[in-house]
Structure prediction request, 383 residues.
Amino acid sequence: MDKVRLGIIGMGNIGKYHADYILNRKITRCELVAVCDAITAPLERFKPLKIFTDGGQLIRSGDVDAVIIATPHFQHTTLGIAALRAGVHTLVEKPISSHKADAERLIAEHKLHPQVVFAGMFQLRTEPRYLKIQKLINEDLGQLVRVNWINTDWYRTEAYYASGGWRATWKGEGGGVLLNQCLHNLDTLQWLCGMPARVRGFCQLGRFHQIEVEDNVTAYLEWANGATGAFISSTGEAPGTNRFEIVGTRGRLVLENNRLAFTRNEMDMLQFSQSAKQGFVKPEVWNVDVPFNDAVLPHAVMVQNFVNAILDGEPLIAPGEHGIHSVELANAMLYSSLRGETVELPMDGSAWEMELNRLIAGSTLQKKVAKVAADDFAGSFRK
Ligand SMILES: NC(=O)c1ccc[n+]([C@@H]2O[C@H](COP(=O)([O-])OP(=O)(O)OC[C@H]3O[C@@H](n4cnc5c(N)ncnc54)[C@H](O)[C@@H]3O)[C@@H](O)[C@H]2O)c1
Prediction:
């Protein structure tokens, strides 16, 4: 094979976005040949591509070597399993599943077909600002001490929530801001700092919107080495903040307003504390403004990597298996909040699945769906 024949299942906001840059030849050695959506009317403009209404039919058609699954979250598991089983290379949108137990099912299917490429869409991993943070953590920051991410610039209006019947419902999505908007940040957090050992979440359900899931979250995190952190997110706060602060024994990194500042301790703070002769002194610091470029189309970088993995065996930026961690963090914060207790990680995925099924069964929300005015969807991930 020297070219990947690709299909996209789920042609809503992000499915169409992927289709547009692929059709604009931003990806080499890849041809978009088929698209699929449960509602076909908006797909007319994609002719002469093959058009399907059923994801399973597209997968089994023989027309595609690979698929991007861009449906609502619950179908990521069912369609992902169907694609892996059929030997079709699979790139699943985030979250890879709606909850940890489903993510385990998806990953277990991939174990049966290891020759099939299975990737997750975690495009923040391609962004130079996060790659610089990764390099600084690995090389300069010393031992991890504290991680604080105030991640409240995910503001969404009622019109957004009304734009899809599945949105912000237990049944359609399985969670709120944690599983949808800031899931990218949860992936980035654990990709950079590793998984915490325990989590205590405080989630407010429908605090700012007519929804049944969480739209306001404060969580405390603790790592095995004693490092601690806070993760705060919201879809109801304007103007909102995006401040990511990572403290190590060799200094502090702050990413805010698209600027990365490294305040570097000339001496490791623990060594300094042990060797200093005076009581109120601190290590000297260097203030470093860390330069980085803006990534060109992070989603396209991910899709090109997926294609290269299929054709050349290039290592994946985000193997599908990695996607379970962000799902687990999102689930654990919610589960902890609902139970009023700390959750140790790895958490029991089946316990949360049972709790989620109870929430689905007890749901009384009457969801109002309305068409939204034309919007700059791509603006939602340019921040
Ligand atoms: N990586 C990113 O930056 C990013 C951005 C936005 C959304 N997403 C993810 O992509 C997914 C879709 O989000 P969206 O905002 O595009 O939603 P959306 O509601 O705009 O689109 C979903 C589409 O899937 C279709 N659909 C539903 N069930 C289907 C099925 N069984 N088979 C085929 N089509 C089906 C719907 O008709 C709809 O057109 C979500 O999981 C979301 O988390 C990722």
Summary: Residues 125-295+326-361 form a domain with the Dihydrodipicolinate Reductase; domain 2 fold (CATH 3.30.360.10). The chain has a mean pLDDT of 96. The radius of gyration is 22 Å.
